[in-house]
Amino acid sequence: MNIPAELKYVDTHEWVRMEGDIAVVGITDFAQDQLGDVTFVELPAVGDMVEENKEMGSVESVKAASDLFSPVSGEVIEVNPMLENQPEILNSAPYTDGWMIKVKISAQPSILISADEYKNVISA
Amino acid sequence: MKTVFAKSKPGRKGVMPAVPKTSAAKMLPETLLRKKRPALPEMSELDVIRHFTGLSKLNYGVDGNFYPLGSCTMKYNPRMNESAAALPGFTAAHPLLAQLPEGEALVQGSLEAIWETERLLCELNGMSAFTMQPMAGAQGELTGALLIAAYHKAKGNKKTKVIVPDAAHGTNPATAALAGYEVVNIKSKDGIVDPEALEAVLDDDVAALMMTCPNTLGLFERHLPKLVEKLRSVDALLYYDGANLNAIMGRMRVGDVGFDVVHLNLHKTMSTPHGGGGPGSGPVGVSERLVPFLPGPRVIKKADGKFGLEYNLPQSIGQVTPFYGHFGVYIKALAYMLRLGGKGLGKASDYAVLNANYIRKRLEGHIDIPYPQICMHEFVASAVTTEAQGVKALDIAKALLDKGYHAPTIYFPLIVKECLMFEPTETESKETLDLFCDDLIAILKEAEKNPDALHAAPVNLPVRRLDETKAAREMVLKDDV
Amino acid sequence: MPFVPHSDEETREMLSTVGVKSLDDLFEYIPKDMRPKQFALPEGMTELGTLQRLQGMAGANSTVEMSFLGAGFYDHFIPAAVDAMVSRGEFLTAYTPYQPEAAQGTLQAIFEYQTAICNLMEMDVANASVYDGGSAIFESCMMAVRATRRERIVIDAAVNPLYRRMLHTLTDNLKLDIVEINCDAGLPVKEQIIAAIDDSTAAVVLQNPTFFGNVCDYNDVFAAAKAKGALSILSVNPVLQAVLKTPREMGADIAVADGQSIGQPLNFGGPYLGVMACTKELVRQIPGRIVGRTTDLEGKTGYVLTLQAREQHIRRAKATSNICSNQALCALRALIHLCLLGPDGLAAAAERGMELARYAAEKLSGLPQVTMLNAAPFGNEFALRLPGNAAQTVSKLLGKGILPGALPGKWYPGMDSILLVACTEKNSEEQIDALAAALGDALGGKI
């Protein structure tokens, strides 16, 4: 399972890459593997406010559906336009092309964990 | 096979129901009319008969195939039921006839049929009253949840939560949510509801516990009396999902053991056909304290022996169906209950349980059976050992299809890995069960020697495995010819 | 009797395989104090005896040969081929098509049904049906509530009162604000409906033809709803839809109907089917089963249940609905009915009902003191104002073997003198002449 060391994680299987006060958010390799072939992604819109540990959307595969939880609080400033028509990139490139949203954070994140800690979460 | 739209030929006629002299354009202003005729198929009557006869041959059904689909009670659907439901006196009756002044006299037979069906269901289940209104099991559940809400409202109880065990049917939590409740899940212990787990989440906010018995693992809920006692302590009600009634007729009545609300699936236990997914019928039975809240109008038998409709129901939740539910479905259940009688219904359950145990025993040692004790009318097996060789429950299911059997229910309940759930029903003979077990055991042996053969299954059906991911991504949901 | 094939010998063998002595032993898990307190069900009967008993009940219903009763549920002609096809065991005794390779017949039929409904309504997506027209309205309102995240529903009182009652009952424990707009002489008051649509409105619900039979165009109301961000739900009559302006042409987002009048006998109230179709924007909000076309691993076309992640068996408490069945066999009846009639046959059924309704309206409103409730255009049904109580008139005519129509006064205060008269292709000019004569006699005090 690919768990890049440079990223931060939450135990609901989202990852975060901080770029200044901008958080780039996606789902982990483990999450996409558990879901199977992703068929649909529902994300917040640009301008929406998301809140740490609160629902922000959902991911569907043929036989499963999973809610997405925001790892940070703030305003959505960009949404990955590719996911609407090519949800399969979540399976092929969850950490790169498959990023979901960019959030201008309004508070310091408080629930993020390291790659090592996340490794423990998924092996539990 | 080509669709009816691909087969359509412009100008071809099937059945003309009438020959009007006036066109719509002469009767209504143009602004109220559609611009062009709807693109419906244009076929001859024989085209239609050929097409649908052809389609029917692509299906498995109980009439042609053993169908041990767990939780679905695919028993034989007696043809007598169909004759009963097709009686013109029943099919031609307009539902509003009964609601016209003196109209009740015109539909005494239909009203009697409803009254009689309710009466038989009450006695069979030990409930005080039944409503035939709910149109299927899930609507019965919603009706039950609304009755529970009405009960608490009338008592001034502030209730916000409904407890659902992890083995429950998916409709249970969906229903509770639809009825405005917060859903609280509890974990099972040894496959059944754990009184301690219930205790841990039980408080004054709990409106009800929804459960089924035997549960979806085919196990009897031994702790029922304890659960009832705990629920009563906070004035919470106990809801029975009747999906598994076929296990207990004559052996237990849910009303006697403390259930307050029960919905039944007549298309399961009472032998009405499933029709490829419906229509069902989901009558709801209640204990005495919930009777005032039942939907109306209610069918009554008057002092003079005549049947009528009662509208004066001040505490009723209202109406969940426009009239009296799926009359044309439950008339079949009535025929079945009258034919079998009390003894016959009891015998049906006895043999449903015998058949399930017989298969369970014959499969022992060939597939993992996580709960090896005596089961009720169904049991679960787990394909964990074959999965190690790359053969999943899905592959076994598809291999069974190739041998002419419908597959068991797979991947439900969610709490058993690689789950296969078998429910043979009482109407299958010993030789059918023996052949089935022989074939399944052969498949399990094949899984060890030649797993790839199972990955390829089915090969004998009209289509091979279908690409469900493509279907979900491309969403071709209608024929654009 | 219980269709149990086991001989005594086989029962013994099977019990011995299971390792128990008797059937009773299989139930030892049920404690003694949980056994039935009583079980006083009747003795079983033979097949002949059972059928005779039920024939007795069916025979206790009286057939009214001359009926003009509709009110949303119509006695249309159903071709013989419909019954012949749906009684095939492969359709009748199959389960929900969860194993698609063994259910292509059911799946393709549903796909064709979805297409027929989309074409009838000019909508993008139809589901495989819900229980009935009322549950279709309820589910549509829930769709709108989810899609808009709003909780106010504006519904016109000319929507079938039984469906409105269902909507109130089914949403009673939810925090919805359902606003009903009264009609005027049976007609929707568009200005008031538009005024009631505000920024918190999830949907506006209208019916065409209305409960009183009037044919309307709701373009303006639906445009107003759109401007406020609310969805438009239109309930229609599927037979008349062969000729009437479509939900799409009016700008509706969701079209619903009771499919009773396409191939379903009246059956004292059911089973019918709830028809639901919507625009593609709402595809993930529509509840119930949906069939999609795909290919198998050899590239051959096939059909599967799709978008199942919306449904209760996956989403559980977060599903779009708790609905689990559809009216598959009723949808199959509707599809076969539509295939047999085709576009021209369906239009003929609509036009024949409409022309008879016009003949009846002219005859009946020509009787002394009888007037039309309103002067607006109508389809195959219209409302008359009688002098005095309409219920008494219905009673008198029933005594003559004529059922002149429905009584809206049951649901609409102040409408005790109104009679709602419906015609289908099963009626005739001769019947209407007889109705007019009998009504004239009744009102003139002759019967």
Task: Walk me through the structure.
The complex is a heterotrimer of chains A (124), B (481) and C (447). Chain A has 124 residues and is of the alpha+beta class. Chain A is built from four helices and nine strands; from the N terminus they run E-E-E-H-E-E-E-E-E-H-H-E-H. Chain A has one domain (8-107): RNA polymerase II/Efflux pump adaptor protein, barrel-sandwich hybrid domain (OB fold (Dihydrolipoamide Acetyltransferase, E2P), Beta Barrel). Chain A has a six-stranded antiparallel sheet. Chain A starts with 7 loop residues before the first strand and ends with a helix. By secondary structure, chain B is α/β, with parallel strands linked by helices. The two termini of chain B are 14 Å apart. In chain B, helix 8 (171-178) links the parallel strand 2 and strand 3. Chain B is globular, with a radius of gyration of 25 Å. Chain C has three domains: 8-58, no CATH class; 66-75 and 343-443, Alpha-Beta Complex (Aspartate Aminotransferase, domain 1); 80-336, Aspartate Aminotransferase, domain 2. Chain C has helices at residues 8-18, 47-59, 80-86, 89-92, 104-121, 133-148, 161-170, 190-196, 219-227, 247-250, 312-315, 328-365, 390-398, 429-443; strands at residues 66-67, 125-126, 152-156, 177-181, 201-208, 231-236, 254-258, 274-278, 291-295, 301-305, 371-372, 381-385, 402-403, 418-422. In chain C, the strands form four sheets. In chain C, strands 2-8-7-6-5-3-4 form a seven-stranded mixed sheet, with helices on both faces. The radius of gyration of chain C is 25 Å and the shape is globular.
Summary keywords:
heterotrimer; A: 124 residues; alpha+beta; OB fold (Dihydrolipoamide Acetyltransferase, E2P); 6-stranded antiparallel beta sheet; 3-stranded antiparallel beta sheet; 4 helices; 9 strands; globular; C: 447 residues; alpha/beta; Aspartate Aminotransferase, domain 1; Aspartate Aminotransferase, domain 2; 3 domains; 7-stranded mixed beta sheet
